[in-house]
Design goal:
Length: 89
C-alpha cells in the first residue's frame, strides 16, 4: 500500500499540494520566523508554492502574517524570493 502524502494549502494561490513540493515558513517557539526546508522544525508552519507569484499574493494579502500570527520580517520575504529565483533558474 502506498504511503499517503500529506497535503498543505499554499498561502498565495490557496491550492492544495503535496507538502514536499511547498516551502515551509515556520514561527519557532522563540517567535523567530525562518524558512524550514526539512519540514520538521518545531513551531507553527505556513506553506507557499515555490512560485514568485504565490509569494506576491501572500505578501499582498498578509496571509503569512495571519497564519503565523506574527508580523513577518522583510528579511524572510527577501530570503523566500531568493529561494524561489534559485529553484526556477
Amino acid at each position: 500500500m502506498q504511503k499517503k502524502i500529506p497535503q498543505r494549502q499554499c498561502m498565495g494561490c490557496r491550492e492544495r499540494r503535496d507538502k514536499r513540493s511547498l516551502i515551509r515558513v515556520v514561527r519557532g517557539p522563540d517567535g523567530n520566523v525562518t524558512l524550514d526546508f526539512s519540514g520538521k522544525a518545531p513551531g507553527r508552519g505556513a506553506y507557499l508554492c515555490p512560485d514568485p507569484e504565490c509569494l506576491k499574493k501572500a505578501i499582498r494579502s498578509k496571509a503569512l502574517d495571519r497564519s503565523l500570527e506574527v508580523s513577518i520580517p522583510q528579511a524572510v520575504y527577501d530570503r523566500l524570493e531568493k529561494e524561489m529565483e534559485g529553484s526556477h533558474g
